[in-house]
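mind reviewing this stuff:

——
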Amino acid sequence: MLRSLVGSEMCIRDRVCFNATSSDKGDGPPLVTQTELNVAAQGMDMVFDPTNGSSHYEDDDNEDDDRLAICAPSDIHEFVSTPFTDLGVVQCQIFRHKSGLFNSYPSYELYLKDGMRFMVAARKRKKTTGAYYIMSLSKDEISRHDKNFIGKVRSNFTGTQFNIFDSGVAADDKERMKNGSGELRKDLGFINYESNILGSKGPRKMTVALPLVNDQGQAALFTQSKDSPDVPSLEAAVGEDGNVENVENVFCLVNRAPKWSERLAAYTLDFRGRVTMASVKNFQLVEDQEDDRILLQFGKVGTDEFTMDFRAPLTPMQAFGICLSSLDNKLACE
């Protein structure tokens, strides 16, 4: 069961009875519960203090990197599709508009929190195999055939793997390529989900592969899929077991694992006041579990309102696409 806490910690209540103090009833050692075994198998600690014993969340050395970024884009298309290179965190809001039976075909709007400036909208298409979201610079006309179409997010049937593409032409669309009707489609991101570690309501494991960004702020180019074995792909960076593979010009992110709090008797993540409602869809992405530097975090703050905070080297479009993948239903993970 999930619940939210004062102080914006996401807490995931264990569905298996936690019995860490059972030794009080006898002289033998404490009983090892299934919860503790699951936690140990994932390399997580049983005690978590987000402040590391201090009143501050981060060291002074990271103060500049954790400040809020000031964004005043003059060209929205360039801003959302270009890797962010400045120091600081970009804070955004996402609003959901429900549509269809059981909210089967929602649309979403992404805004910069500062000034609530609209950036990107997305709509889930009907009659497709797997999830298919269209991204547009217009919130009024979200279509693949509109000039504001900038990309899409597509999944496999079970919703465990997602690709983020720009608006280019697919390499296997020979007719459009022959007519020269557009640039070759770029692969902007690949997201892999695995079944959660604590049952149907626990945290899901995410691995995200993105094109590497060089010192000049240019992202590596990926235009093919894993169906073309002679061309490296983002998918190749994520193994079948969800582990990160060494692939040239790819960097990977993983979701930060929640840790067990003895005081709260719950699994927790600290969102620094930016998330107020508990959900299995809330996440934080880091480069590795030992790294406290969060590159993207997403969480629920209302029935149809969410926060999205990201930093370099992600683009707003990549960050939004990853959040769309988390918002979508996943048959194999829920």
The first strand starts at residue 2 and ends at 4. The CA atoms of residues 69 and 88 lie 5 Å apart. The longest helix spans residues 316-327. Confidence is low (pLDDT under 50) at residues 1-32, 39-61.
